[in-house]
Amino acid sequence: MPEELVHAVLAAHLHVEDEAFSSTSCVSPFPGRGAGAQCLRVCKTWARIGAPLFYHTVVLHSSDMAVAVASAFNRNSGYGAFTRRLRVETQYGCCLKQITRFMTNVDEFVFSLAIWTDTQTTGLRHTLTLLNPRRVTLTMAPLRRLMNHNHNEVVSCFCQQITRWSRLVCQWMN
Q1: What are the extents of the domains in the chain?
Q2: Those residues with Cβ within 8 angstroms of residue 142's Cβ, 6 or more apart along the chain or in another chain
Q3: CB burial class (10 A; 0-12, 13-18, 19+) of residue 167?
Q4: pTM for the full model?
Q5: pLDDT tens digits for 69-120?
Q6: Quick one: which H or E segment has residue 138?
Q7: 31 pLDDT band (50/70/90 cuts)?
Q8: In 3-state terms, what secondary structure has residue 38?
Q9: d(CA 96, CA 94)
Q10: b/e for 91-127, b at 16 or more Cβ within 10 A?
């Protein structure tokens, strides 16, 4: 099969719609996105063509997904440079820190401020210091659930970093 055709097939299969990526719904629009990785295992050619498409949009919706992405980036640090859109649906502590150090080109960043008292926020705060996105989308929980030390730390870090993000042109909150 010609590489152009493989690219077209993979691009259609791995594409993530803007509406789903930027969703501020409390329910994840990505319950099983990991299936796209199966396409990269067909053969070396598909992996070479598909990796930039697969890592263009990284959605971390489970700890298993975060571990898998961290492992892939540790094996091939170039994969992180393909990432233009990052969605973090919950906090992943050290994994998030390992993942985002490879992501040098993130344009769009979606994350949640629904942070509970037992949540590890080190990775998210580190991520906020590394990125320089063009667009940020925040999701939140009801305010009465958000008043805790970890939430306040992340909000404080976010407020500090937002002034440093020179490329930021669009910010959304639900």
Answers
A1: 3-173
A2: none
A3: exposed
A4: 0.86
A5: 999 999 998 999 999 999 988 766 678 888 999 998 999 999 888 887 777 8
A6: strand 135-139
A7: low
A8: helix
A9: 5
A10: bbbebbbbbbebbeebebbbbbbbbeeeeebebbbbb
